Amino acid sequence: MDYSIFISLALYFIVVLGIGLYSFKQSNTDVAGYMLGGRSLSPKVTALSAGASDMSGWMLMGLPGAIYISGMSSAWIAIGLTIGAFFNYVLVAPRLRVYTEYANNAITIPDYFENRFNDKSHILRLLSSIVIIIFFALYTSSGVVAGGKLFESSFGLSYELGLYITAGVVVAYTLFGGFLAVSITDFVQGCIMFVALILVPVVVLFELGGISAATAQFADMPFNYLDMFTDASNGSTLSVIAIISLLSWGLGYFGQPHIIVRFMAIRSVKDIKTARRIGMSWMVVTIIGALGTGLLGFAYVKSQGADLHDPETIFIYLSNVLFHPLISGFLLAAILAAIMSTISSQLLVTSSSLTGDIYQLFVRRDASQKELVLVGRICVALVAIVAIMLAYNRDNSILSIVSNAWAGFGAAFGPVVLISLFWSKMTRLSAIAGMLTGTLTVLFWIYAPVTINGLSLSQWLYEIVPGFLVCSVTIVIVSLLTQQRDMLVIDTFERVNQEFSTRN
After folding, report:
1. Contact (Cβ atoms closer than 8 angstroms) between residue 147 and residue 9
2. Which positions, given as ranges, span the membrane (predicted)?
C-alpha cells in the first residue's frame, strides 16, 4: 500500500492530538471547564461540533450503506433527521442555554433535571445518569465498530487492532483536553467531513459519465432504486408505518445528551441563531453527499462488475479506487473524523455523569475540583474499555446499534427535556415516571417476542415512536395527578422565562 495514505492519516492524528494538548493547558483547572468549556463556544464551533458529534460513522458508513442496499427509500431517515435537528435548534437550544446557567449553573443533563425540579432525593439525577451510562456504552461501541471496519478494509489490519487504534487516539485527546478539545476537534472534523462528502459523490458522478449515465445503471434493476416509496432490497412498497418509522428518527434529537450539551456551552443565547444557520447548512449538504455516495456508489460498483462484501464500506471502497493515495488518506481521515467526533463527545458526557452525578454525589461530596477532573479522566478510559469489549462482535451493523441507542435517548429524555422547558406544571414525579416508561417501552419494543404481520415490533415500527409517545403521555398524566406548589421551582421557571425573553 502507498505510504501517502499513512502520511495523511498521521498528519490528521497529529492535529487532533495537538488540539488535545492545547485544550489541556486551557481548560483543566476545574470540572466546569473540563466538562463544559466554560460556556464559551463560538457559533461556528457550536454548530459544527454539534453536527459532527451527531453524525458519527453512520454518516459516512451507515447511511450510504443503507442507501446502497435499499435505494432512495432510506432517504426518509435523512428527511426526518433534518427536520428534527432544525426544531432542536429552535425549541431546545435557546431555553436550555438560559435554564442550565440560571438554575444553579447545571453542567450535565442529569444536573439540569435535578435543578429544574428541585429534586433533593437525587433520584432523578441517578436515574438519568444510569440511562446515559447504559445507552452511551452501546452508542460508543458503534463508533468503535466503524473504526475496526475502517482499518480492516483499508489497511488489511485486524478488526481488533482497528478497535484499539480508534479508541486509543480518541481517549488520548478527550482524556487530557476535555470538552474544549472535543469541541475544537469536532469543528475541524466537521470541516473534513463536509469536503469529503462533496468530493466523493462528485468524482463518482464524473467517472460514471454524468447523471444520465449514472441513471442508466439502474434501468435493468428488478426494483426501482430511485423510488422513495419502494424498498429496492426486496421490491416491497413502503407502508405508512414504515415511512413514519424512518421519519421518526428526527424525534431523537431532543434527548441526545452529547448534542444538546453543545447548546449549554455556547457563549450566549443570541449566538444560537447564527449557529443554527451554520449547523443546518452543514447538515443539508453532508446528508445529500451521504445519500449521493450510497446511490452513485451502487451505480459505480455495478458498472465495474465488482463485488462489495459489506455495503457499509462503500465510502472506503470509492476512496481507495478513485483517488490518489494522498487524497484517499484525507478521505479516510474524514471517516475517522466522523467516528472520533461522536465517540469523544459520548465518552465525555458519560464521564461527566459518572463523575458529577454519581462519584461526587454518592462517593465523595467534598471532592476537590482537581480530584473530580482526575476521576473524569479515569472514567473516560473506563468507558472506552467497555465500548471496545462490546465492539468485539464484528457482525454488528453500525446503523442498527445507533438506531437502538438513538431511540433509547430520544424516548427517555426527549419528552422530559421538551416539556420541562415549556410547561411550568410538570412535576418531579412525572419526570421520573416518563423517563422510566420511555426507556422500558423502547427495551420492550426491541426485545419482546411479539410479532405483527410476521415482523418483530421494532421491524414493524421504530421503537422511538411508542417510547416517545408513552413518555409524553405519562408526563402529562402524572403531572396532573401530582400537582405540587413548589414555589422555588415555579419562581425559577418564571424568572428563566423572563431572562430568556430579555436575552433573546
Report:
1. no
2. 6-24, 75-92, 123-141, 161-182, 194-218, 238-261, 282-301, 321-343, 372-392, 398-422, 429-448, 460-481
pLDDT tens for each residue of 149-197: 777 776 777 878 888 887 777 777 666 656 666 666 777 777 777 888 8
What is the distance between the alpha carbons of residues 443 and 448, in angstroms, rounded to a whole number?
Answer: 8
Tell me the torsion sign for CA atoms 131, 397, 348, 53: negative
Scan for cell 471496519, then name that residue.
149
Asked which of 30-39, 250-259, 464-473 is least confident by mean pLDDT, the reply is: 30-39
Quick one: pLDDT band at residue 137, thresholds 50, 70, 90? confident
pLDDT value, residue 281: 92
Cβ atoms of 282 and 190 within 8 Å: the answer is: yes
3-state DSSP assignment of residue 347: helix
How far is 266 from 280, CA to CA, in rounded Å?
16
Predicted pLDDT of residue 397:
58
Question: CA 472, CA 414: separation in Å to the nearest integer?
Answer: 9
In the chain, the percentage of residues whose pLDDT exceeds 70 is 78
Query: Is residue 349 pLDDT above 60, yes or no?
Result: yes
Longest dimension (CA), the chain: 70
Q: Is the pLDDT of residue 435 over 90?
A: yes
**Helix, strand, coil percent content, the chain, rounded in steps of 5:** 80, 0, 15
The residue extents of the domains of the chain are 3-395
Axis crossing angle, helix 257-265 with helix 109-116, rounded to the nearest 10: 70
Instruction: Give the CATH fold of the 3-395 domain.
Output: Sodium/glucose cotransporter (1.20.1730)
For Cα atoms 334, 77, 346, give the angle at the middle one, nearest 5 degrees.
50
State the chain's mean pLDDT as an integer: 79
Phi and psi for 230 in degrees, rounded to 5? Answer: -125, 125
Q: How many CB atoms lie within 10 A of CB 462?
A: 29
Which residues are CB-neighbours of 166 under 8 A, at least 6 positions away?
143, 144, 146, 147, 148, 150, 151, 336, 339, 340, 343
Residue 158, CB-side half-sphere exposure with 13 Å CA sphere: 4
| 475, 477, 481, 485: CA torsion to nearest 10 | 40
Nearest 10 degrees: Cα torsion 144, 149, 150, 155: 130
Which phi-psi region, left, alpha or beta, contains residue 427 (left: φ > 0; alpha: ψ -120 to 50)?
A: beta
